[in-house]
Amino acid sequence: MQLPAVRLVWLGRARYSELLALQEHWLRRLQADPSPGTEAGALLLCEPAGPVYTGGLRGGLTPEETTRLRALGAEVRATGRGGLATFHGPGQLLCHPVLDLRRLGLRLRTHVAALEACAVRLCELRGLRGARARPPPYTGVWLGERKICAIGVRCGRHITSHGLALNCSTDLTWFEHIVPCGLVGTGVTSLSEALQRLVTVDEVMPSFLVAFQETFKCTLISEDSPR
């Protein structure tokens, strides 16, 4: 049986606004072509070029918090994804799959589980066997009591957007200015911290793509960025 195809678009280091604009492009493209086919959408990947705090549908950042975070030199944005506030920045792999779940035979819940499984598999491929998903409200992937990968998605008319943020060599001090994902008493970690060496986004990309194809049971087709 032929596996569904997903377009791979790697933006490299890019502003968060560029990723959101490209996501909107792919959302319109999929919404305009609802007919069944072998292509299921696009996998949009980037490393944020600068620090960004984002809020989700379950809660954003107050005007006072926004002012405080912007004073640190960070961008602050509201988003349409699920979840609460989190941080994106250099050293982090951002993955936004814009997918028609019907073409992959997935429901929203299994899509989120597949994102978690993808991040767990990536950690395994990098030699970290203790990574695991946890039940709600602890969405994401964890090493012990610290989160290494945050997940927040949006889904409308069976088409997903947003996705996951995997800490590779992220400066974790940025997370100290918020309560990440609204979870008090938990911390964050990164591949670099867990493996005790510098692990860049470029280094983990091949393993991540393997993990994505395994968990989503699809074939990735490279496509140049439209920039």
TrEMBL record:
It comes from Peromyscus maniculatus bairdii. Substrate binds at residues 81-88, 150-152, 163-165. It is found in: Mitochondrion. GO terms for cellular component: mitochondrion. This is Octanoyl-[acyl-carrier-protein]:protein N-octanoyltransferase LIPT2, mitochondrial. InterPro entries: aa-tRNA-synth_II/BPL/LPL, BPL_LPL_catalytic, Octanoyltransferase. Keywords: Acyltransferase, Mitochondrion, Transferase. One of its GO terms (molecular function) is lipoyl(octanoyl) transferase activity. Belongs to the LipB family. GO terms for biological process: positive regulation of oxygen metabolic process; protein lipoylation. The active site is at residue 181. It comes from the Eukaryota. Pathway: Protein modification; protein lipoylation via endogenous pathway; protein N(6)-(lipoyl)lysine from octanoyl-[acyl-carrier-protein]: step 1/2. Its EC number is 2.3.1.181.
